Amino acid sequence: MEFIESQVTPAAGSWRSILGVFKLRIGFVIACTALAGLAVAPAPAPGPWHIAVLWLGVLVSSACAGAFNQYYEHDIDLLMRRTRTRAFASGKFRRDARWPAAFGALIAAAVAAVGLAANAWAALYVFLGAFFYAVVYTIWLKRRSWLNIVVGGLAGSWAVLAGAAAADPHLGAVPLLLAGVLFLWTPPHFWSLAIAFRDDYEAARVPMLPVVVGDARAAKTIFACTLLLVGASLLPVFFGLGAIYAVGAASGGALFIAKAWRLARRPDRRTAMASFHASLLQLTLLLLAAGIDARW
Asked: Can you tell me the mean pLDDT for 235-243?
């Protein structure tokens, strides 16, 4: 607490700023994907205490990776209207070496806790999720390649595998397929947002797909990726999941396809945000259906 308070300017010190740095909403979603991976693992689930440690470990590691993302990208965040009020970009928090050291220590503690509560494989996947977001996506690819979010999307996939490995390090077909679905979900989800805020990314010289190829081509790519995503999301039905999952995956997928099709026909901010929100609903339905179908 003393460290955090020393970093916040008197005029801006608030818990909202502190919590905003850690992108807890994203961290919560990633932690839930780990629970979905645990649910579909072909093995009995561990005890409640172990599950709680797994969920909290994934949440903390992903939140700290998100916080490092804000710390590292303070310069380009300042150039974008959507992000210029973030704590590091606006100067609410002073940047120094203690921040990344704190993030790294928390990630190490989260990984160690998962290793003790589950096993080394689950801990490795938790670490890889944070590493891919903080290092591969944020440091290596985001400012260099339009593939940034494609490769960076593996962060969510590792969380699914962490959950499955907590039940059994020998991963079955369904957890691997679900991890693949998360990998395919990230590009159309994020590129929809990137079309809505293309001017921001262009101003910051971040090579998101709409900046590189234009909104029209990016929208068509989103539609093609959505078709691939929805097709892949139905594959677990052939490897053990049943009707509940099929209904959840198909209904959420149909909505996402419809919104992506409208985006492809008329790429603008309104249709892009509709596609973005449809992707969130599609993922929510898929994860809930997977968990319910696998356990009940």
From this structure: 94
